[in-house]
Amino acid sequence: MREPANIIRADFGGTLLETRGLTYRADGTRFVDDVSLRLREGRITTILGPNGAGKSLLLRLIHGLIAPTSGDVIWNGRSLDAPARAAQAMVFQRPVMMRRSVAGNLRFALKVKGVPRHARAAQVEALLTKAGLQDMATRPARLLSGGEQQKLAIVRATIGAPRMLMLDEPTANLDPSATRAVETLVQDVQTQGTTVVMVTHDQGQAKRLAQDVAFLQSGRLAEAGPAARLLTEPQSRPMKAWLDGELYVD
Ligand SMILES: Nc1ncnc2c1ncn2[C@@H]1O[C@H](COP(=O)(O)OP(=O)(O)OP(=O)(O)O)[C@@H](O)[C@H]1O
Fold first, then answer.
1. Structurally, what CATH architecture does the domain formed by 15-97+144-244 represent?
2. What are the residues whose beta carbons fall under 8 Å from the beta carbon of 242, sequence distance 6 or more?
3. What is the pTM of this model?
4. Residue whose CA is closest, atom 11 of ligand 1?
């Protein structure tokens, strides 16, 4: 049977998370519209698209933070239940920092993940070093710069070795040096075996980091597949226009 033209099934092997006809409707508008996408294990996938395309909403739907109007999220071949959600971690564009020191934020997350008290100090040290925040351990986390908070949030999210890390515009408003530090951390996370899904506006970032990309336009998946192909030979008009720096309005 032929599929409707608006459904693009990306040909991804080794799927960790799959959406099937995922739709989110509010006030009569489909903000996420019939998205069927597969996210491959061990890869970095970037979700690209213009403002308001539904990228953040899609990320929230696949993390189970909001319920879809219709469609499904399939995790490792099963429905997205509590253990599946526990195997995922999410970092928001403006990370949630606890009213504690930088080290205190890490200590608390280690405790929540069941790391015994005697093992926590060494792990806090290791995580601070990884994030390059050793000199800020005692500073209130909420006073860190945007880039520092993002780095802290990412290493904190890796506690418990999630299978998938979701990042919503982790380098929005960061300068090149902070962006590079965050990107290095994201690559480290992948090297440790975590699958990464990342919303970004930044074409250069997709080129630097992504193995797979998905492009959203007006809530619909315009195309998805390996970054090497899509970023050089996009097939859809919206993605082509976006890559060419043109203003595409549908
Ligand atoms: N919970 C919600 N209920 C209703 N509408 C929502 C909800 N969350 C987002 N929207 C709407 O869905 C649309 C897509 O929003 P979303 O934040 O996902 O876009 P985006 O692609 O991430 O955009 P940007 O790049 O500007 O952050 C917007 O019009 C937004 O107002």
1. 3-Layer(aba) Sandwich (3.40)
2. 48, 49, 50, 203, 215, 248
3. 0.90
4. 31
